[in-house]
Amino acid sequence: MELGLVGNPNGNLYVRGSINAGGVPDLAETIGAAPDVVAADVVCADPARREHVVRCRRGDLAILGVISDGSSSFLINSHANRVGDALTGQPLVLAGRVPVKVSNENGPVHIGDLLALSSTPGVAMRATRPGRVVGIALDNFDQPRGTVLCFVKVGEANLGVELSELRAENSALRERLARLEQSVALLLADRERPQSRVRLARNR
């Protein structure tokens, strides 16, 4: 299929056809980053700086995604003034596939596993509990530390496990409440018996 490009005076570009990516296919845009942020890091919003990222730590909720190596199929150089300007930050993947740092902290990673934050800043691991995830593993991995190809899909995951636990807890609480209500009813009944005998004696 041929690629058709149509431009206009406003700078808009309309594309029809196919685009063949030579490397890992993803869409990224540059963003300011802490000095220790490098390619394949999982990054979160920097609470101390506007429009900046830092390596994520376990428990962080503001996961934004993964840093690319800059060879994205589509790379938006945010805040650049001219075509060809140096990159204005680290390329943050918005969508697509990208290598991400992982560890076997939570066991080997298999294709299809969800990836969550590990105890090492910027590094992901296999997700087994409810919580925030960065994406889905597209590679198998069983080494102490390395990278796997990840389909970026930031969000909440494993909520089914949490719902099952909540249902079980709710069922246990209902049973305890029923037993308490039964005990209270028995106590009230025992309390009423002597008073009934006194009333009966008086009536005689």
List keywords for this structure.
35% strand; Virus Head Decoration Protein, Chain: A; 2 domains; elongated; alpha+beta; 22% helix; 204 residues
Rg for CA atoms: 29 Å
Provide the CATH top-level class of the largest domain.
Answer: Mainly Beta
CATH topology title of the largest domain: Virus Head Decoration Protein, Chain: A
* Approximate strand percentage: 35-45%
Which CATH architecture of the largest domain would you pick? Beta Barrel
What would the principal axes of the Cα set say about the shape?
Answer: elongated
Number of helices: 1
Average pLDDT across residues?
84
DSSP strand count? 12
Q: Roughly how much helix do the residues carry, as a percent range? A: 10-25%
Which structural class is indicated by helix and strand composition?
A: alpha+beta
Number of domains: 2
Q: What's the end-to-end separation, in Å? A: 107 Å
Biggest pleated-sheet summary: 10 strands, mixed
- The arrangement of helices and strands along the chain is EEEEEEEEEEEEH
